[in-house]
Write a structure and sequence with these properties.
Strand content: over 45%
Number of strands: 11
Distance between the termini: 40 Å
Order of helices and strands: EEEEEEEEEEE
Largest sheet: 7 strands, mixed
Helix content: under 10%
Length: about 120
Amino acid sequence: QVQLVESGGGLVQAGGSLRLSCAASGRIFSINAMGWYRQAPGKQRELVAVMPNSGITNYADSVKGRFTISRDNAKNTVNLQMNSLKPEDTAVYYCNAGVVSTTTLRSYDYWGQGTQVTVSS
């Protein structure tokens, strides 16, 4: 079993900053990509940022230049620094990881429980 635990959400005014963190634990042989998704009320879940093992990041156009994703492979963590937040960034943010199991050596997709980010205008 693998668990992803997120932290760092909250309420912030427009223009403010928040930092989300996600730690993976459990039967982890290795982790491929780690990233963040978000889901606003009435909308589909969308990619925010992802970082595979190559280190080449991919961002949604709506967050480019404002959000920065980073990983610590030794600690199996991924962070999302969010600056210049806008009300339209309000959503539940989910951590995602492609984890290679120690028992099967196959990759499985895992999700965190989600953390609420609310940006007031």
